[in-house]
Each structure stands twice: as C-alpha cells, then as structure tokens.
Design a protein that fits this description.
single chain, 2 domains, 4 helices, elongated
Length: 69
C-alpha cells in the first residue's frame, strides 16, 4: 500500500498523510462492493502476497464490474 500512497501523493501533490487517507478510503469502498473473492485479492495485492495470476484475476473481475468484457 505504501507504493500506492506514494503514487497518489506524487500524482496529486497531496501530502503523504492525506494521500494515505484517500487510498484507504478507495480501498475500503472497493472491498465493500466487490465480491468476497475479489475483495480478498485486493488485500493480497496490497500486502504483496498475490501471484501474477491473482492480479490478473482481480483485474479481469474489476473490468467486468466496470462494464468491460
């Protein structure tokens, strides 16, 4: 998650503490709305525990939720 916070901070100009709040808010929002298997993959990705296959599955699932096939 630290990498994501750094990226948000760099791209928005927000201080790191505010970027962290923004990232946590988005992650919580997604996890509350994603199916349980995808939500758990979000946690794994953020903890750097996911495999490439897990990341691919998550992206495919997110694409489906966002209207992509």
């Amino acid at each position: 998650m630290d990498e994501l916070v750094k990226l948000v901070s760099q791209n928005t100009g927000l201080p790191a503490d505010q970027a962290k709040v923004a990232v946590e808010t988005v992650i919580t929002y997604l996890k509350e709305r994603l199916p349980a298997p995808l939500a758990s993959q979000v946690d794994a990705l953020l903890a750097n525990e996911a495999t490439v296959k897990g990341a691919e599955d998550l992206l495919k699932g997110l694409g489906g939720l966002l209207g992509k096939k």
